[in-house]
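Dock glycine; give full complex structure.
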Amino acid sequence: MTQPMIQPEAVSISNAVRTLNVALNERSYPIFIGSELSLIEYLLPHVSSRQVMIVSNDVVAPLYLERYVQALNSAGKTVASCILPDGEAYKTLDSLKLVFDALMQHRFNRDCTVLALGGGVVGDMAGFAAASFQRGVDFIQVPTTLLSQVDSSVGGKTGVNHPLGKNMIGAFKQPKLVLADMSLLSTLPDRELSAGLAEVIKYALIGDVEFLGWLESNVDGLMKRDSQLLAEAVFRSCQHKARIVAADEHEQGDRALLNLGHTFGHAIESFMGYGEWLHGEAVATGMLMAADLSARLGWILNEDVARIRRLLFAAKLPVVVPNIGSDAFLSLMGQDKKVLDGQLRLVLLKKMGQAIITKEFDFQLLLQTLQNKEPGLEVV
Ligand code: NAD
Ligand code: GLY
């Protein structure tokens, strides 16, 4: 008799709320995934401190802050909030200081919790504040974008940007809990939903060809925000992220697979000017370029590249590479932090659903991808 496949991170499925465990010994934590999650059941038992600082932004707070304040107040917690200006442009040390100011002004002590209520920008900043305030306090993630639910809220990377580089100042700080509530996604702008789907598709391309098929069958429902489909996509994505993080918390090895599409994508983001393309959009086109190069190397088929393009297109993601030119592209990629020892390492597809990190590729083929020589890409 064949044994059922056991997913080691999957702990339980109850009342349509699914639980994953990020297995990091004494720093292990649960991810609860569902819709309209009960805060009494899923949040309050995990808040051990009396003081809770909610960090959010001026878009998310008017929509969702009150519910969290009320739930925490009803449990006798002392709650304060710090509302940051919205946007990547404010992911700075100046904004971080606002969080420290709020913590100090409200006389928060070492035994407090910082709760991030927002997308990846808020989560990264609140996490860094939690990592450094009084040398580290408890941290909880309530991610409100699809991207933050499937990626940034899990794994403990936190930080802010420096004017000369993105995410250059930060720390690893694992949360105590991640609450991924699909109902929060109802207000998310369409473009942000698509950007999050790019990261979901990334997990399928890296390590789960069956998930790729599932996404192809369900992309229309995901785009219509069917909450059960979204919960399934978040669950499967977080399963992959939890497994990769548990095996390589500090990115000494396989965690870098999560950067599929990012080296090309960062170059596109930087060429277009930050904010012009969303990160997930640039990653989507970057994944297509990685697939194109993988096909030129003979690792996957041109039909596989076409398949990836169709899925990205169905998720309303850009599938046309901006006309950057190979020289400019190379120099923008050379600035990427994944250039180690002067040698460019890329995450490529050894086959569909199996990514590798490699510097073993023919540079001429990379140039063909950057120049968009037939077959895989289209450039404007
Ligand atoms: P974001 O946090 O800027 O959110 C996108 C936009 O959606 C913002 O305008 C935000 O205010 C708004 N928003 C958020 N939730 C909403 C909701 N429920 N309803 C309506 N509007 C909502 O962007 P993001 O894509 O969530 O995150 C991107 C950031 O995450 C980048 O700074 C990136 O560096 C970081 N990131 C970090 C990691 C990590 O491992 N720590 C991984 C990936 C990305
Ligand atoms: N988003 C990449 C990582 O968490 O490692």
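Observed: Residues 1-8 have pLDDT under 50 and may be disordered.
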